[in-house]
Every structure is written in C-alpha cells, then in structure tokens.
Amino acid sequence: ILNVEQSPQSLHVQEGDSTNFTCSFPSSNFYALHWYRWETAKSPEALFVMTLNGDEKKKGRISATLNTKEGYSYLYIKGSQPEDSATYLCAFSLAGSARQLTFGSGTQLTVLP
Amino acid sequence: GAVVSQHPSRVICKSGTSVKIECRSLDFQATTMFWYRQFPKKSLMLMATSNEGSKATYEQGVEKDKFLINHASLTLSTLTVTSAHPEDSSFYICSEGREGTDTQYFGPGTRLTVL
Question: Using a CB-CB distance cutoff of 8 angstroms, which residues of chain A are in contact with residue B103?
C-alpha cells in the first residue's frame, strides 16, 4: 500500500504570517508530485506538478520544493492572506502509472484576519 | 484552465435505489477521466479510470458491478452507484486527464447520502 503523509493536519495562522507544510511519499519508483489547493464547495485547483529532484516551483506567494531521494515536498506560503484558506492536497504518481494519483489527506489552512 | 462540471452536487436517496453522477468536460475532449471517492477525514481514493469508448479500469477492491462507469462521449463520463446502501454514502469526485500533461482537472464533487 502506497502511503502519502501530510503534516500538519490543520493549521491556523495570522494574516501576514508565512507558513509551510510537508508531504512525505515513497521515494522508490517516483514519477511526479502534485500540489492542489481545495477551497470548500469548489474544485481542487492544480498548483504545481514536479518531477525532478531539487525542483522548485513558484506561483505568486506560493512555492514548493521537491526531494525525491528522501521522499518529501514542502509547500510554502509567504505573507498568508485570508483567501489562502483552503485544504492543500499533495499527490504522487509512480513511473509506469503516471496518471494514477495517490493523495494525502491534506493540510487544512485557516488564515485569520 | 480546464473546467470540469459534476451533476448533481448533492443527492439523497433511499437504500436500494441507483444514483447516476455525471462528469462533464466543458472545454476539452477528454479521452480519459478518473473517479475518486473520499471518506470523511480521509484522502481521495482512486476508484476507476474511465476510457472513452472502452471499458473502465477499476482499482483493486472496487466492485465494477456496483459502480458502473460509462464514458460514451469525449465530454461525458457517468458513474452509477447501483442498489445504493448507506455504506456507499460518500463524496465522489471526477477529474479529466489530458495527453501531454500530468495535471488532472477536477470537478467540484458530488455528496451522496443513502438513507
């Protein structure tokens, strides 16, 4: 059974704080790591797809890093805003089955004004 | 970006009835769609891969006769929960996959409650 662990499970921060979460995944036979943002009553929104060890990607105030050798990815949010409140999901896929995503349970972020 | 819709967003049904959930790709002809299920406080679990014009591929432990998938056109995949029971109550969500990209685009999901 493939396991994806996300931590923390939930997080409350003040507006303006920077924050980060972790996604751990099996490092063998790795193909890709995905991050999604999921707001209540909306569709999960793709943030990043990363495939190479050492990859760093950035989208506005959000960035992510990838370490495939040790099996983890970090998602960073700089200067959190209330609109960043959402559940952040990571998912990974294996070589040979790139479209079959295994998801973590998510980190629920609440940014307090 | 891609837009995927699901209908209905919420459905309540009696035990023993069948429920159909539609997943539509609004701006792309999707040959492949995916169906996931989410139990409370748990992660999204892939149930099956829906292939246009051919049979769906089910994940281990998912009953294909229970969860019927039809992908008759490039823009529509349907999931029918047959003879639903309370344990089928869950959140069902679909996504589309595209050739040339690893990103999946998700619908907003359907909350099924079986009484």
Answer: 34, 46, 49
